Amino acid sequence: MSPAALPLDLTEHGDTPHEADAWLLDPARAFARLNPLEPAPIVLLDPVLRAALAQRGEALPASVEVVILTEADLPTATQWQQAHAEASAEPPRMVCYTPHQESAVEIWLMERRQRLGRQWQHGVFMEVAGAGVLITGDSGIGKSELALELLSRGHRLIADDAPYFIATDKGIEGHCPDNIRDLLEVRGLGIIDIRALFGDNALKRRKILRLVIELYAADHRRMTADDRLHGERGRVRVCQQTIPLFRLPVAPGRNIAVFVETIVRQHNLERGGNDRPRFPLTDASAGTLV
After folding, report:
1. What separation in angstroms does the CA of 264 have from each of 56, 88, 210, 249, 275?
2. Domain with 36 in it
3. Domain annotation covers residue 1
4. What residues are labeled active site?
5. Residues 224 and 203 in one domain
């Protein structure tokens, strides 16, 4: 017998524990309106979809784990469970119901997942050569100046100083807080409006994080022969996922923007052509961004 359907009160349970939270708030489980050709683990069924499935006598795909019946009450959910059990040998693991419409449920789920999995980072988050790159380093190392030069070379800004990251089914997605959107603080220039100076195309609302580049003051006396040949590589954890790290020494006269472009393009080649990097990643410089 299928377990009893669970109510979802979008107001009452907005931030409180719920029996279904372990499923609904797991970023690894995508949610979407039912698409029989490409079903998500969590599907939303509105009255129109439920009627269409019932008319055709079709069962849900076996990959569906959780069903949310929108615009439904307990009797409706119980009746649907009974009908679906007759049409399917493998019912979903959990059925939830809510009187709210599908769009409201989608917004509620997205906001709850974002609040749960949001992680703030210090640095500049940019799209460089099509990849999401977080540029980190000590205050005053030149992160914003580097961002300004990258912008002048055609790359795009997502967030300066305080980007935040959210774990999604597609990867770690980086965003910009509303109060600093479109702005970049550069020492000696102050806060500048990137949209006004470079246009809309210089900005990006969000991007999947692919690489972290850490800037540090160069001390060539401490660089090993392996670092000189292969670069300083490692891994960091963002939102509980491992992201490749490249440490880049900064010194007067070095064109850091060109180096960053080269690092990102090399990383893109390694991701696209070979799952294993050409130079081995070591854990010597691995760390955790908090």
Report:
1. 51, 49, 9, 16, 15
2. 6-116
3. no
4. 122, 143, 161, 228
5. yes
